């Protein structure tokens, strides 16, 4: 692809993302809904302007995801996040086990073979931390109890997802996953996050104090972004995920006195890179594959249990005073994480095109359903509805819309 063609591609993505994002906000929905819709429209299945598999575009989208999680980390109070750690862990574990089990049972009931059914169940375990965090942030709920529980659970989900993906990859390759390998992957994923937060607490604040005395505000933002990139790479190299490292960098910088200066610099760049990520996620959905009746039936069944499993997980921490429906809905979107699971199975030849399309339908519906539902639930809360009324309303709306 020539530089001129690529610049034209970026210009088209940004224009479409901003126009549809603002349109979504005008009709009372989060901007991310419009950005995802822009991707579907511009993607291969409709206009054909955006190919999410283009290497350069994929790289920029990954940068957008890293910047999004870094920004979310900057907005997160670690003490507050740890205070809901038990609830977040419970939501995450139930939100993995229940969808996996339901997805496997439904797949087998439709005659899908053992290994494809496992891949399908694994795809249902995902939660898109990028989409969830963005919606809660846009709606001003990221620092609420529910927002912190969902954020913590979504990050834990991603870590667990790495373990599940490793197991599935072994199965796909014809290897029996070892207990030692699973334990190692789990320990590395969680251990990296803990070690980074511990080391960063003593290293990062004095380092940025020095930078503040010797450089300009722009230097702080640039060095903060460099830290996010380095930790993202380190996380990936030790067997964790890019987004875990980026989120950890934000958590480390959040309690420092320089966080506002860093945020001012990062927001400008994020407004360019983050929409490209969401357009890329939307473009990966091929709506042309939904023409088969059997695909649609299986896809609807998987979508139903995908929503039910995550929604029920929101009620798992019964001891917490919070809007459980808001937590449950916040865990619903699969987004890019669900796409990765499905794509892994397709590329390996474990699932066929029809099964892949059914999983795509599940990803599409859960990704687009959650943001407007979150908006409605938060709107009802602001209007003075009680938590019980909000929860009852959510059950009715999800039943109707799904």
Key structural traits:
Na+/H+ antiporter like fold, 402 residues
Textual characterization of the structure:
The chain has one domain (3-401): Na+/H+ antiporter like fold, CATH 1.20.1530. Helix 6 (114-124) runs antiparallel to helix 8 (145-172) and helix 10 runs antiparallel to helix 11 (242-253). The protein is mainly alpha-helical and 402 residues long. The two termini are 40 Å apart. The chain contains 17 helices and no strands. The chain is globular, with a radius of gyration of 20 Å. Helix content is 79%, strand content 0%.
Taking all residues together, what is the mean pLDDT? 83
Helical percentage: over 70%
- Cα(first) to Cα(last) distance is 40 Å
Query: How much is the radius of gyration in Å?
Result: 20 Å
Number of helices: 17
CATH class: Mainly Alpha
Shape: globular
Poorly predicted ranges (pLDDT <50, ≥5 residues)? none
Helix-strand pattern: HHHHHHHHHHHHHHHHH
Secondary-structure arrangement, i.e. CATH architecture? Up-down Bundle
CATH topology: Na+/H+ antiporter like fold
Q: Approximately what portion of the residues adopt beta-strand conformation?
A: under 5%
Provide the domain count.
1
Topology (elements, then pairings):
Layout lengths: L2 H24 L4 H12 L12 H20 L3 H6 L1 H25 L4 H11 L4 H10 L6 H28 L6 H36 L2 H21 L4 H12 L5 H25 L9 H21 L10 H7 L4 H13 L5 H30 L4 H15 L1
